[in-house]
Amino acid sequence: MSIQLVEHPLIRHYLGRARDLRTSCTEFADLIERIASLMVPTVTANLETEAYEVETPLEQMRAYRLARPLMLVPILRAGLGMVDGFSRLLPTAAVAHLGLYRNEETLEPVVYYKKLPASLARHELIVLDPMLATGGTACAAISYLKERQAARLRFVCVLAAPEGVEQLSRCHPDVPIIGAAMDRELNSQGYILPGLGDAGDRIFGTMFSSDEG
Ligand code: URA
After folding, report:
1. How far apart are the two ends of the chain, measured CA to CA in Å?
2. Which of 23, 64, 67, 81 is the most buried (most CB within 10 A)?
3. Residues identified as active-site
4. Is residue 124 a contact partner of residue 71, using CB atoms and an 8 Å limit?
């Protein structure tokens, strides 16, 4: 099992604020976005580049550009909270949405929403979900993307539980996992401890909703 943690004083500072139950939803959403932004250099550090010739105002030279198109894949709904933080530094990245729910009878994750190109073979995919808890959704999302020929994927979360990292590493050992912090464990409801609560509810201000999983 392995996760690359992005160590940065600002991330530690913002994460502390995000964990605090007194932090407002507006500030919480802002903090998740800022943490996401601070993670971008590490998440993209090993993207392949290719050389090309460019004319500067003075002469011709060899420059570099990303070798493949980037695609952000936020897992609905909490993953949306990380998109702006990534898009600010990766403005040309397409954003493909993926929504999954857990079937109450089979307990299997089911894709209920997708907006993706038919083939993902050309893309570098950055899958976004702030919370890697049991790992079930992350595994299913990545399996789904691989069925669409995704070959280059990385999974980015803010907080991870050891259980989620283990599960995701087991089902997709080829997919790097990058996070801002790893917490202690999951509770019996699948929440990360000490965690920060329900990230989707805190981003979207729906702390009292009881009609969705
Ligand atoms: N999803 C969340 O939003 N929070 C958790 O603690 C676990 C999963």
Report:
1. 27
2. 81
3. 102, 106, 198, 201
4. yes
Q: Using N-to-C axis directions, what is the helix angle for 25-43 and 80-89, rounded to 10°?
A: 50
The preferred substitution site among 28, 128, 131 for testing ligand 1, maximizing ligand atoms within 8 Å of CB, is 131
- What lies within 8 Å, CB to CB, of 46 at 6+ separation is none
* pLDDT tier for residue 208 given thresholds of 50, 70 and 90: confident
Tokens found for residue 64: 């570099």
Q: Is 164 in the pocket of ligand 1 (CB under 6 A)?
A: no
Helices (H) and strands (E) in the chain, counts: 6, 15
Question: pLDDT tens-digit profile of 74-133?
Answer: 999 999 999 999 999 999 999 999 999 877 777 788 999 999 988 899 999 999 999 999
Cβ(203) – ligand 1 distance below 6 Å: no
Model-level pTM? 0.95
Residue 165 near residue 139, CB atoms below 8 Å: no
How does pLDDT run across 12-54, given as a tens digit for each residue?
Answer: 999 999 999 999 999 999 999 999 999 999 999 999 999 999 9
Q: Which atom of ligand 1 is nearest to the CA of 190?
A: 7
186 Cβ closer than 6 Å to some ligand 1 atom: no
Tell me how far the alpha carbon of residue 193 lies from the centroid of ligand 1, in angstroms: 9
pLDDT at residue number 112 = 94
**Beta-carbon neighbour count of residue 22 at 10 Å?**
6
Residue nearest to atom 2 of ligand 1 (CA): 198
